[in-house]
Every structure is written in structure tokens, then in C-alpha cells.
């Protein structure tokens, strides 16, 4: 079943904030802490232990907003978030905070090299 839901920027902010809140609840926080300690600095283990908790939490939240459960819902939601974050700094920041649970920070060099 294909769902064609349209979200506005404010709804996207609410959903992302709810995901963040859910990730920091006592039970999820403990599960994430345990998963992160199991994973250590091994990115493959982070994707094995931490990422599924984050995705599961996202699925629990987004299904309340009419998105389908499972892979299809996550893909649709993520595409919507990416589209909104281009024009909405709040959405971009909330999405960055969620990704920080499973992705290490990326330092982007501000130095610009010119090719002559």
C-alpha cells in the first residue's frame, strides 16, 4: 500500500522532536548506552547494535503520523526530512541530532583550495 502523505515544515519539526524525545526516554537511553558500549569505536558494530534501536524508535513515532511501518515508511520519512532540511535549519538540526546517535561527527574543513 502506497501512502502519499504531505507534511509541512512544522509537522516535520514535531515528528523529529518526538523522535528525539523518544530516544532519550529512560528505556531507550539505557538500550542505546548498552548498545554503544558493545559497539565501542567499531562502526560496523554501531550499525549492528545502535542503528536498529534508532530506526525502531523512528518507526514507532512515524507510524502515528500515517506513514507505513517498516522499510517503506522509513524511506519515505527520510526523503521528506532531507527535502525539508535544505530550506529549514530547525529540521536540519533536529535530523543532525538524531543521526548523532549512530554517526560520528564529521569535521568539514573550511579551507578552500583553488585549482589553477
From TrEMBL:
Q: Which UniProt keywords apply?
A: Cytoplasm
Any single GO CC term annotated in Swiss-Prot or TrEMBL for this entry: cytoplasm
Q: Which Pfam families match?
A: P_C10
- Gene Ontology biological process: post-embryonic development
Lineage, top-rank taxon, reads Eukaryota
Query: Any idea where this protein resides?
Result: Cytoplasm
Q: Which family does it belong to?
A: Belongs to the UPF0456 family.
| Protein name per Swiss-Prot or TrEMBL | Protein C10
